[in-house]
Amino acid sequence: MSIFSRKQSEDSEYSEINRLIMECATSKESLCTLYNMFKGSVFAVAFSITSDYQLSEDCVMETFIRLTQVKRFNPKNGNGKGYIIKIAQNVAHEILRRHKKEYNDFYIQGYGEADQTVEDSIFINQLLKHLNENQRQIIVLKCCSELTFKEISEIMHLNISTVKSRYQKAMSILQSKAGVKSEK
Q1: Neighbouring residues of 110: CB distance < 8 A, sequence distance ≥ 6
Q2: What is the rounded CA–CA span in Å between residue 80 and residue 47?
Q3: pLDDT tens digits for 65-84?
Q4: Which of 81, 113, 139, 144 could bond 44 through an S-S bridge, CB–CB 3.0 to 4.6 Å?
Q5: Domains of the chain
Q6: Which of 96, 83, 74 has its CA nearest to residue 38?
């Protein structure tokens, strides 16, 4: 696939997501489509912030409820995918403050992945404890939500080079703690 056709494909995907965001206040089908597209990513982002399965599920519901109330989204210059993730981040922080939950212990639980074992969850949990909140969010946004560095930089209001360096640092920490030798 050429760079031009890949860019066209991304633009088409963005415009479709933007259209769905604009319609979800009045169209149940649009909201359901967005929900099915982003529920996993929203959950992953919320879980990286709250460290609580139930609070993260609440965040997923609240995020999509807020999408039905959108008034300030401009589909012509908006990144709908990033917009949804940003709403999820804001909702997760609000829910966390509301419940005054401390997030010293971070637990990863499977979300619809039948092959993930308890041992894997514990191992991932132990690895992610070595990262600070920003590093953990960047790893989740990149690996679970499959966002680009540019999208992550826009969501987190950071320079793209900062996002890349924090990602590299976090991956280095995870590899070191997992006993994996980095290939250079």
Answers
A1: 116, 121
A2: 21
A3: 998 888 777 767 668 888 89
A4: 144
A5: 9-101 (1.10.1740.10), 114-184 (1.10.10.10)
A6: 83
